[in-house]
TrEMBL record, chain A:
It is found in: Cell membrane. Keywords: ATP-binding, Cell membrane, Membrane, Nucleotide-binding, Repeat, Sugar transport, Translocase, Transport. The keyword Transport applies. GO terms for cellular component: plasma membrane. This is Nucleoside ABC transporter ATP-binding protein.
From TrEMBL, chain B:
This is Nucleoside ABC transporter membrane protein. The keyword Ion transport does not apply. It is a multi-pass membrane protein. InterPro entries: ABC_transp_permease. GO terms for cellular component: plasma membrane. It is found in: Cell membrane. Keywords: Cell membrane, Membrane, Transmembrane, Transmembrane helix. GO terms for molecular function: transmembrane transporter activity. CDD domains: TM_PBP1_transp_TpRbsC_like. Its main location: membrane. It comes from Loktanella fryxellensis.
Automatic annotation (TrEMBL), chain C:
The lineage of its organism: Bacteria, Pseudomonadati, Pseudomonadota, Alphaproteobacteria, Rhodobacterales. Its main location: membrane. Pfam families: BPD_transp_2. One of its GO terms (cellular component) is plasma membrane. The keyword Zinc-finger does not apply. It is found in: Cell membrane. It is a multi-pass membrane protein. CDD domains: TM_PBP1_transp_TpRbsC_like. The keyword Transmembrane applies. This is Nucleoside ABC transporter membrane protein. Keywords: Cell membrane, Membrane, Transmembrane, Transmembrane helix.
Length: 536, 373, 322, 308
């Protein structure tokens, strides 16, 4: 396992002409790529560019429609993951593939058992796990249930799974999406170690910073195609961004300083316990004023979603919330999305496909979604279809939704256009407060600019905006004030003009001290704890 | 992008599934040494060849419209109500109580009363599983199955006990009073010199069933309730976001579903038997599943599928009467229809989608070619 | 109630619980692998018919048993193809299979034997006969233990003992073998199994096949051991009670045994209303006893007595590509 | 042509329906005639089958089972030119002949045989559905047994309260085993398809069974003591023979009319002692001349010799 590979001409991985369609969607189009052994190769591209698909093909999860795979200079067939594992390939998926009701050890052994009996396999795995953990700083408790450990820890289990199977080529699909900057740094150190051991690493990300920091070479994907492969040292973030999007992009939003007015939303001591008994929000207080954007930063899963859900009316909570000075019901009969909308709160949810839209409804039906009881959409107990249709055509026009076909089902619009439909519906309600979660997740840069402009325009009309995003860049670009959430707590507020990613990252990990003195272990302990929450 | 045009989804797939089911049924008939062609002739003749046959076909169809609508409306809210059998049984109890213990002056009033009784009892029997699903997360499929058995035991208890007239040997209530007898097709359409539908049980309930189709159609596609119900069926998380209460939708959709299943009783209990017998539902609750699947959960589709099953039922009874093919053949056909239109849907759909996709690709290529010229 | 009566009651419990136990364990394997199966009933029925029919024609119950298992496996295959290969709705597939079995058994039996949808009575080697365990007769007169051994433990058909042995076997397979680990994993998160390089389809088909074999045993037991021949609808809802027992047992092997024994006991009790009256001093409606397994299941499902959490991926087809 | 409708158990139920079927076949074989027949699969079909046969011109139409009483009452008036024969129930209509049997008399006879054959002093009865008709069997049986041995214990169980009780052999077996554990060594069943399980259990467990309706002695040779014959076959045969000239009205067939009796054949010859034969013959004569009056449960819904 620790043999150092002598630099040879044969690439560790070579893909030739890979194509893959999912029904009508062509996810990969004639893609070729070479990865040299002992290097870290980055793959960057927008959401939906086809990165995960390509790597899943390499790992035998999907089968390509066309193309060849060469490993260490030999052409191989990879019909399933078994073959990939045999070829020395390991993969950590974007969405972990762990059995939550199993222990860490069982998860590691699963599929790599030595014999038909379980006991000897488990014993060997326990021994080897210890060795691996020591070697790569990958400490895990082998007997913990996966459902009881945090995401950072789960990621280690995934890496260990690959190493246990003696992978020489390790694919990581957006590994940092769930990590704090410090945790990400730790991960990168591990990757450096692995590279030094001679392993080949393919790292998928859409964060330019990470590419620049760690990779040796980088490939850029756009709309299912490979647009370029370059040496990292010979490129720049701006050049990569342009390759990703296909045109020059603005990385900053133009906006004037905010003119905050009266307090619109006042939240005091908000507490949420979910149905598993986990305490999700712990005494959260905040205020949003008219004409300002309050950005909430945090690693996914630290209570931001619950905050939006409570304010949006579909999670129960205790505490005091007032809207325009009037108290809001948090538990009773009128604690639902309908009353919130009547109170002047509009909500662009974090997940437009699962929440904001009914994917099988046509655009014109979705335009009334959440507002189905509005007087203008109804005629007695019936719905006024003509009014809905008219409204849709208007809004789609104003938000430049393409194609302008109100009868098209939501699922048939692209991600960016789906988001525009939701935005159009919520913004055009002229709300006093707009809750907006992950406004540009899975959206093209072109659409991102448009959406950011709309948010700022709404602010400038004197509306209050509460923005939640896991993209620090987005938070920094849009917010007038930034609050950081960690483990259900508000860690404090910062001024975007004076703070930086490093400081926010510390807060996101639950640290308030000097960034220099904190160890990664501490951060991990904190986050593992936060990931599962505390039982009450 | 939808791969297939809508007509293919709505018409082509059910038709292909039906053809597959029919072909396999024919093989079964052949295998037991009978002629499928002869069997079909007997079925068509017996079920559609006379007003008498139609009278039975439409009578059965009426049952299936109700149970089919019941399953369909629940499907729209993504509830699988497999408890139509029990709900219809309880509906029968409601009808029996209304007819036996309230002195009705006229059948029309009795019909209203019985409809209310049937709907109420059927709904009540569906609401319990619904509430358990909404509040306690008990799987509705399992609970409704259990409720079928509980209903059977409960009715059994009543029909051999409190509701059985003294001295009777059958587990059944006494005959309903004459004033509750619903006009049959014979009463409605026969003239002195041209007797139609003689002795067939089809009755005025058929028109109630048609009305139910129209009302349910409007409910699903025209009302706010229907909008919310379908939204919930497509995505529960989205429904919550929009302020649609899952509890409300689960309970209301199941209540409507149960009410519809219960309303079947006005046809078979009040319209036909004119008393409540044990096991009056005779599997119609389950046939509702096949009917709803076949009819793509659309009231019009349900209506057509119900007629089809009415035909199968009456035709099957005729088969049993005139050939040695047992009536259980109908159960086989029913099973095959459920299998192909429900569980094996993808088997039919996937190749079709491939064909349509290939055609579309070809068309797209052709247009780019012509554009290039 | 004296000892002998009690033993008779328990004896009857064991007999009646056996088909429930076999079907329940069948469901256990299938559902643990993530394939819900409400078609237990149909598979039992199909096996009951074919085992009786073949046992009658060949005169050998063992050949009959094989045929019954074969019939059940065939229906399992349909369920597998529908819910694994074609990713159909498992509940609907189960419903279809129940109807298919209910219809086909009668249609075929009628055309084969022309006895109104039943098979002729089985006799001698065409059915399972009770086995007297060693020393049963000798020990019969030993106080207390003797009658227990003779009345309750000895004198059942082979399949009863087989069913009882399958409980520890299932437990061992599920929790101590590689196959068991993978089976449980595929019911919780098939993607994890898939990316670990194990075939989800293969595992699930295996589980469904095991389910078929066990249902086959259950059905054959009904027609060739508990009874001497097939009669129409002879499974009489046992598949559903087994399903109820599976939920009651929270998808675990040993609790499956206790749950089916409990439900078997209720059935035995329903046959002896006189015992209830004499023991309790008041009479209980047999209808209530009939409905009790279902009521208990609903109560369990509602989480009033400990929550039953099904395998996480249960009922959902494993879809990689939309 | 005549027609016959069998009840839910089906024409091969080895008892009631099969007996009716045998009568019909005998007629067909002897006369070379043909008849229409149908086996009901569900309650709802009763009326349909009746009408279908009436409309197709079948005459007379014989129906086996008391459950036809209600539908027949409904439709008889619609077909005044058709003759209907109903077995086991009485329907008052000008074109209906009702055939009922004095089952208590036949049951009395097999009760006597049971008591004489019993070693344990306990005999038992398994009924199908708990209805007055079946209680009539049980009551006559108990009375017969007690006439031989006043101290005898008679255990009576019913399989259920719904028509499903006619077709539940598993339950039949279990009930029989329960009765055995209470000391019974002879069991009489009047339970349709359920009875198959009863006789099977008796044969498997060193008990003697007693068949019902048809002669069931052959089912387990040497292990079925006798069968209580109810000559449904004769009733059907007679009706078919009379054809359209069937006499409307009520016919009650008992021992005197040879409508009920006990089955003696080669299969039970070893079980029947000469004393039994004489006792039975005496009793038959007594019943026929009225000197022995067997209580009919259905006359007053009570049973002096047995509590249910
Ligand atoms: N299993 C699937 N079935 C159908 N379509 C899929 C599937 N997986 C991906 N797609 C589609 O294929 C395209 C490429 O998706 P892929 O997940 O490879 O993108 P990605 O570059 O990894 O994006 P992201 O940054 O969001 O992870 C998208 O349009 C996506 O919707
Ligand atoms: N999972 C999927 N199933 C079916 N169709 C899909 C799927 N994902 C994407 N599509 C289709 O593929 C097309 C491209 O989707 P995608 O979200 O990648 O768009 P995009 O090119 O990134 O556009 P935008 O800039 O608006 O985000 C869309 O028109 C959509 O209809
Ligand atoms: Mg991806
Ligand atoms: Mg996009």
């Amino acid at each position: 396992m620790t043999t150092t590979t002598t630099p040879s001409a044969a690439p560790a991985i070579e893909l030739k002409g890979i194509s893959k369609s999912f029904g009508p969607v062509q996810a990969n189009k004639d893609i070729s790529i070479r990865v040299m052994p002992g290097t870290i190769h980055g793959i960057i591209g927008e959401n939906g560019a086809g990165k995960s698909t390509l790597m899943s093909i390499l790992y035998g999860f999907y089968r390509a429609d066309a193309g060849e795979i060469w490993v260490a200079g030999k052409k191989v067939e990879i019909p399933d993951s078994q073959a990939a594992i045999a070829a020395g390939i390991g993969m950590v998926f974007q969405h972990f593939k762990l059995v939550e009701t199993f222990t860490v050890l069982e998860n590691i052994v699963l599929g790599a058992e030595d014999s038909a009996m379980l006991r000897p396999s488990l014993a060997r795995a326990r021994r080897e796990l210890k060795a691996l953990a020591d070697e790569y700083e990958l400490n895990v408790d082998p007997d913990a249930l996966v459902s009881d450990i945090g995401v950072g820890m789960q990621q280690r289990v995934e890496i260990l799974k690959a190493l246990y199977r003696r992978a020489d080529i390790l694919i990581l699909d957006e590994p940092t999406g769930v990590l704090t900057p410090a945790e990400a740094d730790h991960l990168f150190r591990i990757l450096e170690n692995l590279r030094r051991e001679g392993k080949t690493i393919i790292l998928i990300t859409h964060k330019l910073r990470e590419i620049m920091e760690i990779t040796d070479t980088v490939s850029v994907m756009r709309r299912g195609q490979m647009t370029a492969t370059v040496k990292t040292a010979e490129t720049s973030p701006a050049a990569l961004a342009e390759l990703m999007v296909g045109r020059k992009v603005l990385l900053r939003v133009n906006k004037t300083p905010a003119q905050p007015g009266a307090v619109i939303l006042d939240v005091a001591d908000l507490n949420v316990t979910d149905d598993k008994g986990v305490h999700r929000l712990k005494g959260v207080s905040l205020q949003v004023r008219a004409g300002e954007v309050l950005g909430i930063a945090g690693v996914a899963g630290n209570g931001q979603s619950e905050l939006l859900e409570v304010l949006g009316g579909y999670a129960r909570a205790t505490g005091r919330v007032t809207m325009n000075g009037r108290p809001i019901d948090l538990t009773g009969r009128s604690s639902d999305g309908q009353s919130r909308r009547r109170d002047g709160i509009a909500h662009v949810p974090e997940d437009r496909q699962a929440e904001g839209l009914i994917m099988d409804y046509a655009a014109w039906e979705n335009i009334a979604f959440g507002y189905q009881n509005d007087a203008r959409f109804r005629r007695g107990p019936l719905m006024d279809h003509a009014a809905m249709m008219q409204d849709t055509v208007d809004k789609m026009g104003r938000f430049d939704v393409r194609p302008l076909d109100p009868k098209l089902a939501a699922k048939n619009f692209s991600g960016g256009n789906q988001q525009k439909i939701v935005l159009a519906r919520e913004i055009e309600r002229n709300p006093d407060l707009l809750l907006i979660g992950q406004p540009t997740r899975g959206v093209d840069i072109g659409a991102i600019e448009f959406i950011h402009q709309q948010i700022i325009a709404l602010r400038d009309q004197g509306k209050a905006i509460l923005l939640v995003s896991v993209e620090l860049e987005e938070i920094l670009a849009l917010s007038d004030r930034i609050a950081v959430m960690f483990d259900g707590h508000m860690m404090g507020e910062r001024d975007p003009a004076t703070t930086n990613e490093k400081e926010l990252g510390m807060l996101m990990a639950g640290m308030t001290g000097d960034p220099g003195n904190v160890t990664v272990t501490e951060i991990e302990r904190n986050l593992a704890h936060a990931g599962t929450g505390t039982k009450v | 992008m939808d791969v297939m045009p809508k007509w293919a989804d709505v018409v082509l797939i059910p038709v292909i599934s039906l053809v597959l089911a029919a072909a396999l049924s024919a093989i079964v008939i052949l295998a037991i040494g009978e002629s499928p062609w002869e069997a079909l002739k007997i079925m068509v003749q017996g079920a559609l060849g006379s007003t008498y046959g139609w009278g039975y076909t439409l009578y059965y169809a009426t049952n299936f419209v109700f149970t089919g609508l019941a399953v369909a409306i629940a499907f729209h809210a993504r509830m699988f109500n497999i408890g139509g059998e029990g709900q219809a049984a309880l509906g029968g109890l409601g009808v029996a109580l209304v007819c036996l213990y309230i002195p009705w002056p006229h059948w029309s009033l009795a019909l209203l009363g019985a409809t209310a009784g049937a709907a109420l009892f059927g709904a009540a029997w569906a609401i319990i599983p619904a509430v358990l699903q909404a509040k306690r997360g008990s799987h509705i499929v399992i609970t409704t199955i259990m409720f079928n058995f509980i209903a059977a035991a409960f009715l059994n208890y009543l029909l051999v006990g409190a509701l059985k007239p003294a001295g009777s040997m059958e587990p059944a209530t006494g005959k309903f009073p004459d004033a509750t007898f619903l006009p049959s097709f014979q009463d409605m359409f026969s003239t002195a010199d041209n007797p139609l539908f003689r002795g067939a049980p089809a009755n005025v309930t058929f028109f109630v069933a048609i009305a139910a189709c129209v009302v349910i159609w409007a409910l699903i596609w025209r009302t706010r309730l229907g909008y919310e119900l379908r939204a919930f069926g497509h995505s529960e998380t989205a429904a919550k976001y929009a302020g649609i209460s899952p509890t409300k939708i689960i309970v209301i959709s199941m209540a409507i579903s149960g009410a519809l299943a219960g309303m079947m009783a006005i046809n078979n209990v009040m319209g036909e038997a004119e008393r409540l017998v044990l096991n009056a539902v005779e599997g119609a609750g389950f046939i509702g599943i096949a009917v709803a699947l076949m009819g793509r959960s659309h009231p019009f589709g349900v209506f057509l599928a119900a007629i089809l099953f009415g035909f199968l039922y009456q035709g099957g009874a005729e088969l049993a009467l005139w050939t040695s093919i047992p009536r259980e053949l109908i159960v086989v056909i029913q099973a095959l229809v459920i299998l192909f239109t429900g569980a094996l849907d993808n088997m039919v759909r996937m190749p079709l989608e491939r064909i349509f996709l290939a055609r579309r690709r070809k068309a797209a290529r052709a247009t780019t070619l012509t554009a290039a010229e | 109630m004296d000892l002998l009566t009690l033993l008779q009651l328990l004896d009857s419990t064991l007999r009646l619980a056996t088909p429930l136990l076999l079907a329940c364990l069948a469901g256990l394997f299938s559902e643990r692998a993530g394939i819900f199966d409400i078609g237990l009933e149909g598979k039992m029925l199909a096996s009951a018919f074919l085992s009786a029919a073949i046992a009658f024609t060949t005169g050998s119950v063992w050949i009959g048993l094989l045929a019954g298992v074969g019939a059940s496996l065939l229906l399992s295959a349909i369920h597998g193809v529908a819910s694994i290969t074609f990713r159909g709705n498992q509940l609907i597939s189960g419903v279809a299979i129940n109807f298919l079995a209910a219809g086909l058994t009668v249609v075929i039996a009628q055309s084969w034997f022309a006895e109104g949808g039943r098979t002729p009575q089985l006799a001698g080697a065409a059915r399972f006969n009770p086995i007297t365990l060693p020393f049963a007769n000798e020990l019969r007169d030993v106080p207390v233990l003797g009658p227990i051994y003779y009345e309750l433990i000895s004198g059942h058909t082979a399949l009863v003992y087989v069913a009882l042995l399958i409980v520890p076997l299932s437990w061992w397979v599920l929790y101590s073998t590689r196959f068991g680990l993978r089976l449980r994993a595929v019911g919780e998160n098939p993607a994890a199994v898939d990316t670990a390089g194990i075939s989800v389809i293969g595992l699930r088909f295996t589980a469904v096949a095991i389910c078929g074999v066990l249902c086959g045993l259950a059905g054959a037991y009904l027609a060739t051991a508990l009874q001497a021949g097939f009669t129409k609808d002879m499974s009489a809802g046992r598949g559903y009670i087994a399903l109820a027992a599976l939920i009651f047992a929270k998808w675990k092997p040993w609790p499956c045994l206790w749950a089916t024994l409990l439900f078997g006991f209720l059935q035995a009790l329903a046959l002896r209303p006189d015992l209830i009256t004499s023991t309790l001093g008041f009479s209980v409606q047999t209808q209530l006893l009939d409905a009790l397994p279902y009521i208990l299941t609903v109560v369990i499902l509602a989480g009033f007595v400990g929550k039953a959490i099904p395998p996480r991926a249960g009922g959902e087809p494993y879809i990689k590509e939309r | 042509d005549p027609a016959i409708i069998f009840d839910l158990g089906g024409k091969f139920d080895k008892s009631f329906n099969e007996s009716a079927f045998n009568g019909a076949t005998r007629w067909a074989e002897e006369t070379g005639g043909t008849f229409a027949e149908v086996e009901l699969q569900s309650d709802a079909q009763r009326e349909q089958a009746l009408r279908r046969f009436a409309e197709s011109g079948a005459n007379p139409i014989v129906m086996a089972g008391f459950s036809f009483a209600t539908p027949l009452t409904d439709i008889a008036g619609d077909y005044p030119d058709t003759k209907f024969v109903i077995i086991d129930a009485v329907v008052e209509a000008p074109n209906v002949k009702s055939v009922v049997f004095n089952e208590e008399q036949g049951s009395y006879l097999v009760g006597m045989l049971a008591a004489m054959a019993s070693q344990t002093g306990t005999v038992s009865f398994v009924g199908g559905m708990d209805i007055p008709l079946i209680r009539k069997f049980a009551c006559g049986y108990a009375e017969g047994a007690k006439s031989v041995n006043p101290d005898i214990t008679v255990i009576a169980n019913m399989t259920g309260t719904t028509p499903a009780a006619w077709n539940d052999p598993v339950k039949g077996t279990e009930l029989t085993l329960a009765q055995k554990s209470q000391g019974s060594d002879v069991v009489f069943q009047a339970a349709g398809g359920t009875g198959v399980g009863v006789l099977q259990a008796a044969a498997d467990n060193e008990m003697l069974g007693i068949g019902v309706d048809a002669n069931q002695n052959y089912m387990h040779p040497g292990q079925v003591l006798t069968s209580m014959l109810k000559r449904v076959d004769v009733a059907v045969y007679d009706a078919f023979t009379a054809g359209e000239a069937v006499e409307p009205g009520v016919a009650a067939l008992g021992v005197a009319e040879d409508g009920v009796g006990v089955a003696m054949d080669e299969f039970n010859a070893e079980l029947i002692t000469p004393e039994m034969t004489t006792a039975i013959e005496t009793a038959q004569a007594g019943i026929a001349d009225g000197s022995i009056a067997v209580h009919d449960y259905m006359s007053d819904e009570s049973c002096p010799s047995l509590t249910f």
